[in-house]
């Protein structure tokens, strides 16, 4: 049982990419919440709160892009966003199909984390685009 808990904790704590990356305050808050309540319900609540924060940040980045981008550029971004939303929705269905067949409650927060990461990655993409606009 301890090994299983270690594996689940490592899933949330270890970086998902190469090299060391600076943790975002949203991720830091989520990790702290999980440290306070490491139950399945506690982890799911922490992930849900983090997901809400990522959604708010996505909306904020979108609003800033709408103000900064010329209309023709923003029109293209809207097309990309519609495609991303379609991708996200299909990816969530794919996760649901896979995680529904997993045994044990530990997979519930893992699935929620995968869904949250879709939004987090999109936020990072949009914020990167904002940074690019600032270079003009």
The total of beta strands comes to: 0
Counting helices, strands and paired strands, the structural category is mainly alpha
Task: Using the CA coordinates, give the radius of gyration.
Answer: 17 Å
Strand content: under 5%
Low-confidence segments: none
Mean pLDDT across every amino acid position: 90
Report the major sheet: none
Overall, the morphology is: globular
Spatial gap, N to C terminus: 54 Å
| Secondary-structure element string | HHHHH
Tally of DSSP helical segments: 5
**Helicity range:** over 70%
Secondary-structure map:
Blueprint: H1 2-13, H2 25-36, H3 40-68, H4 71-99, H5 107-134
Helix pairs in contact: 2-3, 3-5, 4-5
Gist of the model:
With 136 residues, the protein is mainly α. The chain is built from five helices and no strands.
List the keywords.
136 residues; mainly alpha; 5 helices; globular
What does this entry look like structurally?
There is one protein chain. 81% of the residues lie in helices and 0% in strands. The chain has five helices and no strands. The termini are far apart.
